[in-house]
Amino acid sequence: LWPGAARLEGEPPQAEVIERFVERFRPRGLVRGAITPSYGLTEGTGTVTGEVSLARPRTLQVDPQRLASGTLSASAGGRTLVSNGRFSAGVRAVIADPATRTACAPGAIGELWLRGDTIATHYVADPALVSERFAELAGAPGERYLRTGDLGALLDGELYLTGRAHDLIIVRGENVFPDDIELIARQSAPFIPASGAAAFGIPLDGSEVVALVLEVPEGVADLSASLDAIRGALVRRLGVRIARLACVREGALPKTPIGKLKRSEARRMLLDGAFATLDLESNAKVEPSIEMQ
């Protein structure tokens, strides 16, 4: 296939998923350069990033500890991020600190703000949403940007996304990205289906801790060993300990019509005890909800 034949949009691209996809369809003629990670959004009339090139997709290995502290720093053997490419002509982008409304330094993680001829400038008949989603940089009146809600960094002109602002978990001052937790969980327990793991923050004794809900297909026996493997991998690779872990039947996690996780709804369901969880030994439903602590 020719360069750019397949575009990836909607979620931060994952290097491992791309490589598996290419290997799966290589016998059918798919080449790596046909995959073009890009970025677009409903409020834009065109693709915001997505340079077509045989050199795509471009990856960067970063220090996971510096990433947790909010900075991309190249480090061999670190976590692999996939670039969403360079910005299209006519799009002005800035990575901003939402608290100070100032531009972040190259490599610093902040919120992606956009403006340009192809980017919306307001919402019709919804002034409250306009106030929430549009902002000006400090010291630059009149230049209004769309706040995308997506977190990431710019490095050497490339956009690297790390997740959604409202999904970010902060544990002891460190950033924890739910996508990383979910990916490691699926790697450690391959029976977990795609979009079958949901990680989010929950309150505990005045602090935020990490909760994880896993979908488990019927017929999987002795979940305890798999859960131990997940916990160990998360500690080794991210330094993250799961404070609350629930196993539910496949299909129980709330998702959009196209299969994207609704983490906020899953969080509410867990806190409300709305999930029917599984017994760790028999893989049978347990009522009311019981979580592995």
How does this structure look, described?
The chain is α+β, with helices and mostly antiparallel strands and 293 residues long. It is built from six helices and 17 strands. The strands form six sheets. Strands 5, 6, 7, 8, 9 and 10 form a six-stranded antiparallel sheet that branches. A hairpin with a 4-residue loop joins strand 5 (91-97) and strand 6. Helix 4 packs across helix 5. The longest helix has 16 residues, at 223-238. The protein is globular. The model is unreliable at 281-293 (pLDDT under 50).
Provide keyphrases for this structure.
6 helices, disordered C terminus, 30% strand, 17 strands, 6-stranded antiparallel beta sheet, 3-stranded mixed beta sheet, alpha+beta, 20% helix, 293 residues, single chain
Order of helices and strands: EHEEHEEEEHEEEEEHEEHEHEE
Q: Please state the structural category.
A: alpha+beta
Mean of pLDDT:
88
Rg over alpha carbons: 20 Å
Distance between the termini: 48 Å
Low-confidence stretches: 281-293
Q: Got a strand count?
A: 17
Form type:
globular
What is the helical fraction, as a range of percent? 10-25%
Q: Proportion of β residues? A: 25-35%
Total DSSP helices: 6
The main pleated sheet reads as: 6 strands, antiparallel
